[in-house]
Amino acid sequence: MKNIRNFCIIAHIDHGKSTLADRLLQATGTISDREMKDQALDDMDLERERGITIKSHAIQMNHTHEGQAYTLNLIDTPGHVDFSYEVSRSIAACEGALLIVDAAQGIEAQTISNLYLALEHDLEIIPVLNKMDLPGAMPEEVTDQIVDLIGCSPTDVIPASGKTGLGVDKILDAIINRVPAPKGNPDAPLQAMIFDSVFNPFRGVIAYYRVINGTLKKGEKVKFVNTGRTYNADDIGILKMDLVPKKEVSTGDVGYIISGIKQANEVKVGDTITTVANPCTEAVKGFEDVKPMVFAGIYPVDTEDYEELRFSMEKLQLNDSSLVFEPESSAALGFGFRCGFLGMLHLEIIQERLEREFKMTVITTVPNVSYFAYLRKNPDEKLIVNNPSELPDPSTLEKVEEPFIKAQVITKSEYIGAIMTLCIEKRGELQNQVYLTQDRVELTFEMPLAEIVFDFYDRLKTVSKGYASFDYFPIGYKSSDLIKLDVLLNGEQVDALSALVHRSNAFNLGKKICVKLKELIPRQQFEIPIQAAIGSKVIARETIKALRKDVTAKCYGGDISRKRKLLEKQKEGKKRMRQVGRVEVPQEAFLAVLKLN
Ligand code: GTP
């Protein structure tokens, strides 16, 4: 055990975590240069294409240092806020962390939020100044930022480059010399914390864990403490580039278990594995059921594909336990599903996977957060509203609550004004303002989560010219003056376009939505009024003029094949159109509310 080192890599997105991990794998001979593909750890196609790590992975490296053999377990963590719970569990499985900071960018919001997570778990922090090869690298300045942030000495900061391999040996030395060996008692009852799981179509769920105490033996009967389920430890072992089966995995080590679990949602990240014969008395602390933060309806473009969509969603859920869904129906869109996601990125990923892996064409409705509604006649009962069109009649409501977040923005001082204005417009309240260096500021706001869902990232990027990074975490529900804004097309209310908005924004938003929809919905044979309404009161209106002529009219008497081509072209264009009443509505229109500025 004294020669084991468990560490993770934490960084702001794109600061070069995966690339540096690849260099460590090469330097320790875990992967040969020939086998080396860029970002070997990101094995999903989608990950590779988007260049982001979606699920965290673990890998064991062997390294000899001053004549002694060491086992280094690297736990890779996802960098995006949508997956921050996974980051926290990965961190809890380690004793040390490489804190990677891009030398050309400096400290960013997730550098800090991930660092706080690591410090909460008392990890030894090894700061790494990455991308030193870049001409724009600012080593002194960024080293100062790091020193200020974690209170280390400038000599503790390792200059490195994932591209050239600079600093890789120093990093390996630091892991061995500075990260403490795991503690724990190999003779105690088994206590292993699951920090990740993946779904394999042939073998079922593979859970990754860190053994805190005791030893797990192949074939033993095990129990997952929080779910209460028991399994047989059919296959256990350690993780190299592949799974390496072992007879036992002991205290301090990181391993996998395969036990015939067919559904991803049976395995919860953060849960504790123990044995049935000699169970531990306590689960590992910090277990949380991950809750979806953002909801949206997903509907098949063609109503006949509903069953196929259900099948596809079920398949997806098998390997993504954070996806939740239930059937819903919409007067406008027919039968579909209300789905819960960890965040907007997660939503996009699911939509993309449905299309790529399952060849489904779907319509996604306006995303929203989850609201709590309290009725006047029974104010103690909390109703959970995941779909704005299900909000009870306002006259019966005592109050409505919405989720709030604490948001951290790091930026250059010249953009403070613009960012403050944006945050205030988004109903944010400034809590704190701290200068990290002379011209870098950390701003802390409390604001409604719903405002983040609605185009916040894009706006932040624009007003700060890209010089702002952002992170957030939920802080609970608060009551808000929310009302339901409805949209009527051709006189008919379209439930899939309803949104809950703050009363003070309703008029402004209603107007903007009508204008946007007018842009997005193509002209048709008849005039289409677009109206925004609160209850029965119309607050805004635009009109889409009728098309003057039938598009095919000019072909009459002409070449028949030309006409057919034209019709086919139209059909192509219709792929993402949904018939709502008499009106053809394109997919973009359902997301119009997100793109109003
Ligand atoms: P996530 O997994 O999405 O959080 O990103 P990451 O932090 O793992 O970053 P990644 O390793 O994917 O690198 C981001 C980008 O920076 C890629 O385009 C890399 O090629 C580039 N990059 C990484 N390290 C270096 C480096 O040392 N020098 C230079 N010049 N580019 C680098």
UniProtKB/TrEMBL annotation:
<dbReference type="InterPro" id="IPR004161">
    <property type="entry name" value="EFTu-like_2"/>
</dbReference>
<feature type="binding site">
    <location>
        <begin position="14"/>
        <end position="19"/>
    </location>
    <ligand>
        <name>GTP</name>
    </ligand>
</feature>
<protein>
    <recommendedName>
        <fullName>Elongation factor 4</fullName>
        <ecNumber>3.6.5.n1</ecNumber>
    </recommendedName>
</protein>
<dbReference type="InterPro" id="IPR038363">
    <property type="entry name" value="LepA_C_sf"/>
</dbReference>
<keyword id="KW-0378">Hydrolase</keyword>
<dbReference type="Pfam" id="PF03144">
    <property type="entry name" value="GTP_EFTU_D2"/>
</dbReference>
<dbReference type="InterPro" id="IPR000640">
    <property type="entry name" value="EFG_V-like"/>
</dbReference>
<dbReference type="InterPro" id="IPR006297">
    <property type="entry name" value="EF-4"/>
</dbReference>
<feature type="binding site">
    <location>
        <begin position="130"/>
        <end position="133"/>
    </location>
    <ligand>
        <name>GTP</name>
    </ligand>
</feature>
<keyword id="KW-0472">Membrane</keyword>
<dbReference type="InterPro" id="IPR013842">
    <property type="entry name" value="LepA_CTD"/>
</dbReference>
<dbReference type="InterPro" id="IPR005225">
    <property type="entry name" value="Small_GTP-bd"/>
</dbReference>
<dbReference type="Pfam" id="PF00009">
    <property type="entry name" value="GTP_EFTU"/>
</dbReference>
<dbReference type="InterPro" id="IPR035654">
    <property type="entry name" value="LepA_IV"/>
</dbReference>
<keyword id="KW-0342">GTP-binding</keyword>
<comment type="similarity">
    <text>Belongs to the TRAFAC class translation factor GTPase superfamily. Classic translation factor GTPase family. LepA subfamily.</text>
</comment>
<keyword id="KW-0648">Protein biosynthesis</keyword>
<keyword id="KW-0251">Elongation factor</keyword>
<dbReference type="InterPro" id="IPR000795">
    <property type="entry name" value="T_Tr_GTP-bd_dom"/>
</dbReference>
<dbReference type="Pfam" id="PF00679">
    <property type="entry name" value="EFG_C"/>
</dbReference>
<dbReference type="Pfam" id="PF06421">
    <property type="entry name" value="LepA_C"/>
</dbReference>
<comment type="function">
    <text>Required for accurate and efficient protein synthesis under certain stress conditions. May act as a fidelity factor of the translation reaction, by catalyzing a one-codon backward translocation of tRNAs on improperly translocated ribosomes. Back-translocation proceeds from a post-translocation (POST) complex to a pre-translocation (PRE) complex, thus giving elongation factor G a second chance to translocate the tRNAs correctly. Binds to ribosomes in a GTP-dependent manner.</text>
</comment>
<keyword id="KW-0547">Nucleotide-binding</keyword>
<feature type="domain" description="Tr-type G">
    <location>
        <begin position="2"/>
        <end position="183"/>
    </location>
</feature>
<keyword id="KW-1003">Cell membrane</keyword>
<dbReference type="GO" id="GO:0003746">
    <property type="term" value="F:translation elongation factor activity"/>
</dbReference>
<dbReference type="InterPro" id="IPR027417">
    <property type="entry name" value="P-loop_NTPase"/>
</dbReference>
<dbReference type="InterPro" id="IPR035647">
    <property type="entry name" value="EFG_III/V"/>
</dbReference>
